[in-house]
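Subject: Sanity check before I submit

Could someone independently write out the structure tokens for this chain? I want to compare against mine line by line before I put it in a report. The sequence has 201 residues.
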Amino acid sequence: MNALIKLATTALEGFLSAHLPKLTSDWWQKHVIDRLSFQQQRHVQERGCTSLRDLDFAALLRVLDQNWFELSSALSLPKEARNWVKELQTVRNKWAHQSAQDVPPSEMYRDADTLERVLTILGATRDVLSLVEATKTEALTHLASHKHSQPTNSAAASAQEPDFSARRTWLALALVSARSPMKAHIIQALGNLHWTNDVSS
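---
Independent answer below. Compare away.
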């Protein structure tokens, strides 16, 4: 995921560089510096940052979020995309402080899906979007093929069922919101999950 965030940093920088200068001649001060948090402003001053390429992903996301009204008005961006940007800020913070513990595949899928949605409105290249889709597919595969220990009695089998049900529900919800290229992968994951449940029962 961190590798995808690095690619997203480049895409976001390109998007902002293409559109912020069109808002006003004083765009760097008015739409970048003034929109950053106090800590980010101090960081920019200490490092002598003079362009968007000098900013990290967190700062670029804040610039996008804080300039949303101006950019969405000029570019007719979808209203729901503002929520994706805010969710991506949470995703970024999580991965910036990620422990050694593995991230659950359902969480990985959601994070990658949020990233893909934002990258799409930014006009990211097909190659970048394909890498994100590959991460989502891998997460679905792990989710569907996760092996449970064989239950030794009916009580153990019953205890497993809520987890299978939860994963089936999660995949079904993902299917509803998925874009067309992902639907086949989710349907396959659902089928694999039902098969695994039948075997363990």
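---
OP: Matches mine. For the report I'm noting this point. The two ends are 35 Å apart (CA to CA).
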